[in-house]
Amino acid sequence: MRNRFDYLAKQIGQEALSPSGTTVAHDEIHPETQYADLRHEPDLARQAERDRIGLLGRLAAAPCVIEAYSEAPDAEEFRACLSKHLASWHGRARKTRSDSRKRREQGQAPAAFVDSFLWIIAAGAPTMLLTELELKAAPGWPAGVYLFGGEVLRVGLVVASELPRDTTTLLVRLVAAGPLLAQAVKELAALPESAHERAVAEPVLLAFQHMLGQKPSQTPDEQEFIVAMQSSWKDARTEGRTEGRTEGRTEGRTEAKADAVLTVLRVRGITMSDAARERILAQKDLSCLERWHERPRDLSRGVSGPSWFGPRWPCSTDKFRQAACAPREVEASG
After folding, report:
1. Which of 167, 261, 262, 306 is deepest in the core (most CB within 10 A)?
2. Average pLDDT over the chain, rounded to an integer
3. How far apart are CA 206 and CA 186, in angstroms?
4. Per-residue pLDDT tens digits for 87-127
5. Pairwise CA distance, residues 20 & 214, whole Å
6. Chain center to CA of 136
7. What tens digit of pLDDT does each residue of 202-214 get?
8. What is the 3-state secondary structure (H, E, C) of the chain?
């Protein structure tokens, strides 16, 4: 493991990609023992799962090896990635040839082979690699994505610090980690709880935070991550509790006001059907309930009319909602 962020990249990548195909973290590559951060074999029938994870799903559209760096990789690290990529590619090709022979012996069509791809995800821009390899921005891809070697080598470099800061790139920026992680955590915490990105990354981030907390000392990037986690999730929990209290108070006020309206009608001797009573109790427009309660005389006259307790009362259309909150207009209109 190159560093702690290497663990984080593998866990988030595996969690995000597993629903769309076979994904192996720390995958052993022969002939000599090497390990890829992530190796992904996409299931073509699960494209919808890849679409849910934005840019990371697009990177994984073909069989690939993914290597993540929390800093800018140097030339030696790039060559090591390339070595893993070629070894994995050759291994897949050998397996496909073997499977094809077995299928032909059984009278079946040979197995299809799709060339592998290498994606290097880096938190920082590897200036020397970009210059020496003359990497150019890939057309049709977001800013920060570079391709190298054409169909001969099939290598892509993703400079996470150059990616657009939106939800589609969020998981890739979390995988890159390093100095980008604290900001990405804040963006993740700001998403709705139902967001798929949160379901993928939040458990991994919380486990990673706990793991770093057990260390006797942390790097500056690790410390920044811990602070971001503590503040972001605290703010999210506080906001959730505030929204819950606000909704609870509003609901309590509407229920109390509906009961008050029923009391007014009962005191005035107005007979109501069960359906009418249920519709009053179901009314959630507090201003409408308050108007009914404040104008009991008009309400008393209005509820005697069939339009109030007919099938459409209270009605969801603006016309009848206005009528329900304005008994005089209903009465005047006949």
Report:
1. 261
2. 79
3. 13
4. 988 888 888 888 888 888 888 888 788 889 999 999 999 99
5. 33
6. 30
7. 888 888 888 888 8
8. CCCHHHHHHHHHHHHHHHHHEEEEEEEEECCCCEEEEEEEEECHHHHHHHHCCHHHHHHCCCCEEEEEECCCCCHHHHHHHHHHHHHHHHHHHHHHHHHHHHHHHCCCCCCCCCCCEEEEEECCCCHHHHHHCCCEECCCCCCCEEEECHHHHCEEEEEHHHCCCCHHHHHHHHHHCHHHHHHHHHHHHHCCCCCHHHHHHHHHHHHHHHHHHCCCCCCHHHHHHHHHHHHHHHHHHHHHHHHHHHHHHHHHHHHHHHHHHHHHHHHCCCCCCHHHHHHHHHCCCHHHHHHHHHCHHHHHHHHCCHHHHCCCCCCCCHHHHHHHCCHHHHHHCC
pTM of the model: 0.64
CA distance 205 to 122: 19
Helix axes 286-294, 220-267, angle to 10 degrees: 30
Longest dimension (CA), the chain: 91
The three-point CA angle 280-281-286 to 5° equals 80
Q: Are 82 and 129 in contact (CB under 8 A)?
A: no
Cα angle 325-331-334, degrees, rounded to a multiple of 5: 130
Q: What are residue 38's DSSP bridge partners? A: 25, 66
CA distance readout (Å), 155 to 29, 116, 146, 235, 262: 17, 9, 9, 40, 72
Bridge partners (DSSP) of residue 21 are 42
- 155-195 tens-digit pLDDT: 999 999 999 999 999 999 999 998 898 899 999 999 998 99
Alpha carbon separation from 44 to 60, 62, 308, 329 (Å, rounded): 11, 9, 57, 62
CA distance 177 to 2: 13
